[in-house]
Write a structure and sequence with these properties.
Strand content: over 45%
Distance between the termini: 72 Å
Radius of gyration: 30 Å
Shape: elongated
Number of strands: 29
Length: 326
């Protein structure tokens, strides 16, 4: 292979590999155009880039429309490397390097203002600063090995509304325009409970967490504040009774085991009148389903989700028990 073609494809492979390792703004796509600019501002051929010390800028256009401008000093990233929004000259993300060491990473709004800046601290720490699109600071946080240690959170008027100190406190999440998204209870640097909100400010979900997974009673509310659903979770798995509501009245109670319905589901009319009882076994309707209407009771039978007659249910059940050695 001709030297220039070999070097071009080798450099392309290295560029894509480095892009993947640095967690690009968008998933790395095929590079469709690439040019090399010497540190003195002269565009040079790919085969001359290495011979002239790899000092200057490599500008790549990707298939997804993203333009990447990387700066090198003797083949090592040094200075600001930028990533544009797709099909735009506006910078979406900037990485700042000091001879290969990442010193800061900044994300931008399409308007050009800073959205978030991340600075590594120590071996595994980082400081994260965020802004509203108006330019007002939104939050300042310090992490140690991805554990939140310190934080201060502001509303759009730059008033402090939440703090985390030594890994404990309240973390506030707002969108770029100041709309409240979530309030998080932080304990020992981790989220112990998260409350999300509707656009009118009323709670939407209250979710207790343990090591990042749902653990405890999860409550869901409608925008007017009425309850919608109550669930029980254990270490990220739905266990216990799930209750659903309509017009603030109970419409169903479903028992869960290991994430699937298991037991007797009850459905109600007008919040307190039993209407249906459904038998669940490991996520399947299996057994009788009773329908109540006044003093009348009708029964449907299911065998592993398939409707059957009562006699067929007995035959299939006995057959399975014999084959399982019961």
């Amino acid at each position: 292979m001709h030297k220039s073609k070999y070097f071009h494809w080798a450099l392309l492979a290295l560029t894509l590999a480095s892009c993947n390792s640095r967690n690009c703004y968008d998933p790395c796509q095929e590079v469709i155009e690439q040019k090399y600019v010497h540190k003195y501002g002269i565009e040079i051929a790919p085969e001359d880039w290495e011979e002239r010390g790899q000092c200057g800028q490599v500008i790549s256009t990707r298939k997804d429309g993203t333009t990447v401008a990387e700066y090198y000093d003797n083949g090592v990233l040094h200075g600001d490397c930028t990533y544009s929004f797709p099909h735009s000259s506006t910078v979406a993300r900037k990485e700042s390097y000091d001879f290969g060491a990442l010193m800061a990473e900044t994300a931008y709004y399409r308007s050009g203002g800073s959205r978030q800046e991340v600075k590594p601290t120590g071996a595994k720490g980082k400081e994260v600063t965020s802004w509203y699109e108006s330019g007002v600071p939104k939050s300042k946080e310090s992490f140690d090995n991805d554990i939140l240690v310190e934080g201060e959170y502001y509303n759009a008027e730059h008033t402090v509304e939440g703090r985390v100190h030594e890994g404990n406190g309240t973390r506030i999440q707002r969108d770029a325009y100041g709309q409240l998204i979530a309030r998080e209870l932080i304990q020992n640097g981790e989220i112990a409970q998260i409350t999300t909100f509707h656009s009118n400010g009323n709670p939407k979900e209250v979710i207790p967490l343990l090591k990042g997974t749902r653990h405890g009673t999860v409550q869901t509310f409608l925008p007017d504040g009425e309850p919608s659903r109550v669930e029980e979770w254990t270490n990220g798995i739905q266990n216990g009774t799930t209750i659903t509501f309509e017009n603030a009245e109970v419409v169903s109670k479903v028992p869960y085991t290991n994430g699937v319905p298991n037991g007797i589901e009850e459905r109600y009319r007008d919040g307190n009148v039993l209407a249906v009882r459904i038998t669940w076994v490991a996520g399947n309707k299996h057994g009788p389903t009773y329908h109540y209407a006044g003093s009348n009771v009708t029964t449907d039978w299911f065998f592993q989700n398939k409707p059957v007659s009562e006699s067929d249910y007995d035959i299939l059940t006995n057959y399975n028990q014999r084959n399982r050695g019961y």
